Amino acid sequence: MRDSIIDSIKSLPPLSKTIVEINRVYKDENSSVADMAKAIEGDPMIVANLLKAASSPLYGFSKDITNASQAVSLFGMSMTRSIAIGNSVRKLLNVDLEPYGISSDKFAEISSLQAAFLSAWYSKIDRSKAQKLFLPVFLQETGKIIIASEIIQNDETISFKSEVEGSNNLAQLEKSYVSMTSAEVTALVFEHWNFDEEVINIIKYADNPSSAPDDLKESANILNIIKTIIPINKPLSEQAINFGLKKAENSGFDISEVKQAIDLVSELM
């Protein structure tokens, strides 16, 4: 099945011109919020999704957001880029997550919840690093869309879905069915689309942080802890939280800070 997944990734259409422009603006150190707003204004769907995100309680904005410039100013360049790319990617991949037992809307909600958890937790520790990790955290589950498609094509939806419901290790389950984890598939998708090498590698090791190069271990651990606490099959369940806290403790993080983030994000569900 690994070869089949790789073939599916190779056949993916290119990212839209708007996303290419958003990436260009983001990488340009001389670019401004106005430049980012201009980059997205030509795509009504991206603007609509950005405004929808701005009204979500996940981000806690107290004022009404009515245009792209306001949204970009409040979100910042990194979060704006992540939200725009995330919505565009889900549209390109034609989401059907029935094997995982969730809808496309629920999938998007959990991706946003994981990103909100990053902000609530790690922004207080290292704001710059948190901003850099926002994109990988927000998009780290993308590979599940490809895996779900493979499961459907092989008529394994019922058996896979039944195992997802009780699984405490989705990466291991994915590996048993398609020989790859979601993180590995996501990394290949973004490699296909020529994303930043660092983003690709952080995601690549998110299901197995111990194998990551030393300079990426902490970032891979952060992604892994977040997806452990907020897995798509049982986000913020008592069991998921306990597993995540244990991983955080073993990785040397301050458990009290993780618990504070859990409390904050739990109020948003």
From TrEMBL:
Start and end residues of each HDOD domain: 12-209
InterPro entries (alphabetical): HDOD (IPR013976), RNase_Y/CdgJ (IPR052340)
Record protein name field: HDOD domain-containing protein
Gene source species: Sulfurimonas lithotrophica
